[in-house]
Amino acid sequence: MEAHGHARTTAASRSRSALATTLVLTAGVMVVELVAGLWTGSLALVADAGHMLTDAGALALALFASWIAARPPTPAKTYGYYRAEILAARGLPADVVYAILAHADYSGMPRVSLLDRALYACDELTGFVHACALVRPGKVVAGLEPASVRKKLKDRAFARTVNRDDVFRGAAELGVDLDAHIAFVVEALAGVAPEIGLGRA
């Protein structure tokens, strides 16, 4: 299947060179203010350099997001990676944006941080545990045993859209025992059961 393109130029990609120039200038002014503030003992200059650091961070995040968003569409991602620009515009930190992108194998982005691996390990398993709870009496997730979840994992007809390989690979990448990970997810979901359509014990 060919990737059908959504021909569009993102807002940030149109001004990537302006973003890069602004980032360099902001970082340069920050360094000058910091050095001058330390040299003269001016707390005001040092404080303003700190303010400039947050500005530089925001610009760097926007530049990163525009670079990701400009990646071309693929057969699996026909809309490309525009979500990165949207997430960054909503103020999510760069590490969170990266983790969201890296949790999908087809993105081709390696999972390097603990956050990357944790999101990947919890994504498919959380949906699967939720499905297991929905078929229990009262839709109660509390008390759901890892052995029961493992048994359901073997039934390919149950929650068939859940990628079983992702569940096993996620626990392995996170470096945790699958049963312990299932128990952790069950406990986490039990704490928010009513908000996600599940019953309390």
Order of helices and strands: HHHHHHHHH
Determine the number of helices (DSSP H or I, runs of at least 4 residues): 9
Large-scale geometry: elongated
Structural class: mainly alpha
Helical residues, percent? 55-70%
Question: Which spans have pLDDT < 50 for at least 5 consecutive residues?
Answer: 1-8
For the record, the count of structural domains works out to 2
Mean pLDDT across the residues is 83
Gyration radius, in Å: 23 Å
- What does the largest sheet look like? none
Number of E-type strands: 0
Strand content: under 5%
Through-space gap between termini: 46 Å
What are its keywords?
201 residues; single chain; mainly alpha
What does it look like?
The protein is mainly alpha-helical and 201 residues long. It has helices at 11-14, 16-40, 43-69, 82-89, 94-102, 114-134, 146-154, 164-174, 178-190. It folds into 2 domains: 11-90, no CATH class; 114-196, no CATH class. The chain is built from 9 helices and no strands. The chain starts with 10 loop residues before the first helix and ends in an 11-residue tail after the last helix.
Sequence-ordered SSE layout with sheet pairings:
Layout lengths: L10 H4 L1 H25 L2 H27 L12 H8 L4 H9 L11 H21 L11 H9 L9 H11 L3 H13 L11
Helix pairs in contact: 2-3, 3-4, 5-6, 6-8, 6-9, 7-9
